Amino acid sequence: MKNYIVAKNYEGDGIWGHLVLPKDTIVVEENGILSYQGKKICYSTSNDAYDYFSRNDDQEGARRFALVNNIKDTLNALKNDYVSECEEIRKNYLLPPEERESRIAEIDDEWADALDRLHTNNRTKVFFTNGVFNFSFYNASIRDLEYVEYIIEQKEEVGGQA
Question: How many CB atoms are located within 10 Å of the residue 39 CB?
Answer without folding.
Answer: 14
